[in-house]
Write a structure and sequence with these properties.
Chain lengths: ~400, ~375
C-alpha cells in the first residue's frame, strides 16, 4: 500500500476482507482523505455483491474527497472469486469521467509468478504515465525510495545530462505522469522489472551490490545504454574509504549478519570478510539454504569455500522458533533478524532500499562504523524508531 | 453487508481470535493461507509476539495450492512441523483464500493427526469476520474434540473463559482475576490465556465459569446447557476501592468496547459516579446481556450517528474512537481495535487503577 500511496493526489480504496485491511489500515493510520476501506464479507462474495458495492463505495469516495486519481486495491479472495475488474472500472469511469480510475491487484498467493502484488503495482503505476513525449530523463523503477541525495548515481546522471525521476519526488499527479517522458529506466529492484519491460524504454538493472567490480559493471551497462560515460574513480575511492573505516570500527568484534540488512546477504558478508571483519553467522529468510536468491549464489559459494566457519541459519525454518535470542553469540548483530535471533548486545539497522552503484557500500559501511561508536541494543534501537514492542 | 471505513482501522479478524486462543494453549497453529495472513496476525494482533511468539505458522499458500489443492503436500508439511515442535495439539485455521477455495480445514487437521499422531482440530475462519467470531468457533472446535465425557463436579473451582490479548493488553488483569477468586477460597480450573489442554479437557468439572469477554459467552451457555454449569459475566472491575452508591445523574455515558467488559465498567460508573448510559460494541453482542439503548454498531458511520444523536457527556472506549467524540473521553485501549498503538497506556480493570484512571478524567467534570 505504501508503494501505491506514492501516486500523488490519489485516493486508495482497499476492497477486501477485514483481516487484510487491518494490516494496511494500521500501517497508514492517521492519513484520512488518502485511504478508505471497503470490508467485504463471505456473504458479499457468495451473493455476488462485491462489484456493485465497490462501485457504490467509489461513488462515496469521489463525492466526499474529490481525488484526482482513485486507485482500487483488490485482494486475493476477491480476485479468486472472479470479480470482473474491467467491468467495475468501466462502470466507475462512466459515472466519474473527471477522475482517473486504476486498479491494483493485491494478490498475495501470486508470489513468485511474476504477478505478485509489488510487481503488479509497478506495472499498473507505469500505465498511469503520460507517454506523449520524451525528454533526457531516467525513471527509477522498483523501489519505494529514490536514491539518497548524496548517492553517486545522482552525480553520474547529472554528468550524463539526465534527470532522475522517482514517484516520491513528484509533487503532484502531473509531475508523476511526467515519468512517462523518460527515455530510459533504471530497475532498482527486481520487483520493477516487469514494469520496466511493459513501459517499453531501454533499461538497466541496478539492484544494490556490495562489490566494487559489480558496481562498476552496473555503470558500464548504464553508459552503454545512454551512449555516454564519466569517471567513476572518485566514487569507488569513497566506497573504499567507507569500508576501511567500518573495518577499523569493527576490529576485534564478531558479527552476525541478517538478510533484513542487505539486498544480497552473502554479497555483504563477502565484502566484510574480504576486508577483515569477523562475520561468524549469517541469517537468511529463505526457508532453505538451497533457495538463496540467484544473484547471491556466487557470493554464497565464495563464503562457503573461503570461510567454512561461517554458520548459515535459515530464519524461515519453523524450528528456529525455539532459538530466538540464543541462536548464536556475536558481539554485533547487523539487521533486525540477526538481532532478534542472537544474543548480541549491539544491533545495527541497515537498509539499502533503492540504492545502487557504489552507494550501498558507502551507506552500509558508514552506518556500521557510526553505530559501532554508539552501540544500542535491539530494544533501544527499536525504541529510537518509536516502535512499540 | 460490506462496511466502508475512512477513519478507523479494520478490527482484529476471526483468524486472529482463533490463533490468540490456541497459541496460549500451546497448540501449533497452521494458518492455511498466504504468508501475508500470518503477517497480519503477528504484526498487529499478537501484541506479545516479540517476547513469546508462539507456534503460529503459515502454510505459505501460493497460486498452485489455491488452484490444485495440494492438500497432501500441505498436510505433510503441517505434520512435519508438528513433529519438530511436539505441541500438545495442532490447529488448522482458515484464511480468506482457503475459505474461498473451499478448503476442508477439519479434514486437513484429521489427516495431519493421522500422519503425526498428534491430536488436531480444524477451525473454519475466513478473515472476513471479527475476532470474537473466531474465538467462538475455536471454543466450539476445542469442546467438540477435547472435552472428556461426564462431569465430576468440584465445588469452589472456577474457570476463566475468554481472556485473550485482543481484549486485554497484557496478563496483569488475568493475574488480578486469579488472585480475586483464589482470595475467595476458590481453586482455579481452566484459565484462558494460560492453561493448556490438560485443564481444558476437564473444565466441565468446575462449579463456575467466569466470562471475561463476550466472545466466550456462547461457550459458557453451551457448558450450561450440556453440563449444567453456572456462569457469570459480573466481573470485579475496580478492585478493592469501595464503591459509593451514588444517585444517578442526568449525564449520559457511552461505553464502547467488548460487551461484557463495557457492561461491567458501566456498573462501576453507576455506583461510583452516579452516571449511566449505553453500551455499544462492534463485536459479539448478546441481547440478553444488554439493556435498552445498548447496541451492536454496524460500522464507522453507525458510531458517528450514535454519538451525534446520543447527547452523551462522557464516552469511554479505545483512544481511536476519541476523534468521534465531542465530549469528555475516557481512553481504555483495546488491542483488537488499536493493536499496540496505546498498549503502554493500558489501565488494569480488576485493580484500583481503573478507578484512579476514571477519577482523573472525570474529576473536573462531575
Amino acid at each position: 500500500m505504501s508503494m501505491v500511496a506514492m501516486v500523488p493526489e490519489s485516493f486508495l480504496l482497499f476492497v477486501g476482507p477485514l483481516s487484510c485491511g487491518r494490516f494496511s489500515a494500521m500501517n497508514s493510520f492517521g492519513a484520512e482523505g488518502k485511504y478508505g476501506y471497503l470490508y467485504i464479507t463471505d456473504a458479499d462474495i457468495s451473493l455476488g455483491k462485491v462489484a456493485a458495492e465497490t462501485v457504490e463505495a467509489a461513488d462515496t469516495v469521489i463525492e466526499k474527497y474529490h481525488p484526482k486519481v482513485l486507485i482500487l486495491l483488490l485482494t486475493c479472495n476477491i480476485l479468486i472469486a472472479g470479480i470482473d475488474e474491467n467491468a467495475v472500472l468501466g462502470e466507475i469511469r462512466k459515472k466519474h469521467s473527471g477522475t482517473i480510475i486504476q486498479s491494483f491487484p493485491v494478490n498475495h498467493i501470486a508470489s513468485g509468478t511474476g504477478h505478485d502484488p509489488v510487481e503488479m503495482m509497478f506495472v499498473r503505476m507505469t500505465e498511469l504515465f503520460d507517454r506523449s513525449s520524451k525528454e533526457d530523463a531516467v525513471d527509477f523503477i522498483g523501489s519505494s525510495m529514490p536514491p539518497d541525495c548524496n548517492s553517486d548515481i545522482n552525480s553520474v546522471l547529472e554528468q550524463l545530462g539526465l534527470t532522475g525521476l522517482h514517484p516520491v519526488k513528484a509533487k503532484n499527479f502531473d509531475e508523476f505522469k511526467r515519468m512517462g517522458h523518460a527515455k530510459y529506466a533504471i530497475v532498482a529492484n527486481a520487483d520493477g522489472l516487469a514494469a520496466a519491460q511493459s513501459f517499453g524504454v531501454p533499461y538497466v538493472e541496478m539492484e544494490p551490490v556490495y562489490s566494487y567490480e559489480e558496481a562498476s559493471e552496473q555503470y558500464a551497462a548504464l553508459f552503454k545504454m545512454v551512449g555516454k560515460d564519466c569517471d567513476l574513480a572518485p566514487y569507488r575511492k569513497k566506497a573504499e574509504e567507507a569500508v576501511s573505516a567500518a573495518a577499523e570500527a569493527m576490529k576485534g568484534k564478531t558479527v552476525s549478519l541478517g538478510s533484513s540488512a542487505a539486498h544480497r546477504t552473502f554479497g555483504l558478508a563477502r565484502l566484510m570478510l574480504e576486508n577483515g571483519m569477523a562475520v561468524t553467522d549469517v541469517f537468511i529468510t529463505e526457508e532453505s539454504y538451497d533457495r538463496t536468491a540467484e544473484n547471491d549464489l556466487r557470493d554464497r559459494e565464495w563464503v562457503a569455500k573461503a570461510h567454512p566457519e561461517v554458520a548459515v541459519h535459515q530464519a524461515g525454518d519453523t524450528s528456529m522458533q525455539g532459538s530466538i535470542g540464543r541462536c548464536c553469540r556475536a558481539d554485533v548483530a547487523i539487521g533486525f533478524n540477526a538481532a532478534y535471533m542472537t544474543d548480541s548486545t549491539a544491533a545495527i539497522n541497515v537498509t539499502d532500499n533503492g540504492q545502487m552503484g557504489f552507494w550501498p557500500i558507502v551507506r552500509t559501511m558508514t552506518r556500521i562504523a557510526d553505530s559501532a561508536k554508539k552501540p544500542q541494543s535491539m530494544k533501544e534501537l527499536m525504541a529510537s524508531y518509536g516502535v512499540t514492542i | 453487508m460490506a462496511e466502508l471505513m475512512f477513519r478507523l482501522p479494520g478490527f482484529a479478524a476471526d483468524f486472529s481470535g482463533a490463533a490468540s486462543v490456541l497459541s496460549s494453549m500451546q497448540a501449533m497453529v497452521a494458518m492455511y493461507g498466504p504468508t501475508q495472513c500470518l503477517k497480519n496476525y503477528e504484526s498487529f494482533d499478537a501484541p506479545n509476539w516479540f517476547s513469546s511468539p508462539g507456534l503460529v505458522f503459515s502454510t505459505y499458500m501460493d497460486e498452485n495450492d489455491a488452484i490444485m489443492g495440494n492438500y497432501r503436500e500441505i498436510t505433510e508439511r503441517i505434520a512435519n512441523s508438528a513433529r519438530k515442535h511436539s505441541p500438545d495439539f495442532i490447529a488448522v485455521i482458515g484464511s480468506p483464500v482457503s475459505s474461498m477455495t473451499g478448503a476442508d480445514h477439519r479434514g486437513i487437521a484429521m489427516e495431519a493427526e493421522r500422519i503425526s499422531g498428534i491430536p488436531a482440530i480444524g477451525v473454519d475462519t475466513s478473515g472476513s469476520h471479527d475476532y470474537t467470531y473466531g474465538i467462538e468457533k475455536t471454543y466450539a472446535a476445542l469442546a467438540d474434540r477435547f472435552l472428556l465425557n461426564g462431569r465430576v463436579p468440584e465445588a469452589d473451582r472456577v474457570n476463566i473463559l475468554g481472556y485473550t490479548y485482543l481484549d486485554y493488553c497484557n496478563g496483569t488483569d488475568l493475574d488480578a482475576l486469579c488472585s480475586y477468586y483464589t482470595a475467595k477460597g476458590m481453586a482455579l480450573g481452566f484459565v484462558s490465556g494460560r492453561s493448556g489442554l490438560n485443564k481444558f479437557e476437564r473444565l466441565q468439572n468446575a462449579s463456575l465459569n467466569v466470562v471475561v469477554s463476550a466472545s466466550a459467552l456462547k461457550f459458557a451457555r453451551y457448558l450450561k446447557e450440556v453440563y449444567g454449569m453456572d456462569y457469570t459475566c459480573e466481573l470485579p472491575v475496580g478492585g478493592s476501592i469501595p464503591k459509593k452508591t451514588a444517585t444517578l445523574r442526568q449525564e449520559r455515558c457511552l461505553f464502547i468496547g467488548d460487551q461484557v467488559m463495557a457492561s461491567n465498567i458501566r456498573t462501576l460508573f453507576e455506583s461510583r459516579y452516579g452516571v449511566s448510559g449505553d453500551v455499544c460494541t462492534f463485536f459479539a453482542f448478546d441481547r440478553d446481556l444488554s439493556r435498552e439503548g445498548d447496541a451492536k454498531l454496524d460500522g464507522e458511520a453507525d458510531l458517528r450517528e450514535r454519538i451525534d444523536k446520543g447527547n452523551y457527556s462522557i464516552i469511554v472506549g479505545d483512544p481511536l474512537f476519541m476523534s468521534f467524540a465531542r465530549c469528555q473521553f475516557v481512553p481504555l485501549p483495546q488491542p483488537a481495535v488499536s493493536s499496540k498503538l496505546f498498549w503502554r497506556e493500558h489501565t488494569r480493570l480488576y485493580a484500583d487503577d481503573i478507578v484512579q484512571h476514571a477519577d482523573r478524567f472525570l474529576s473536573g467534570f462531575l
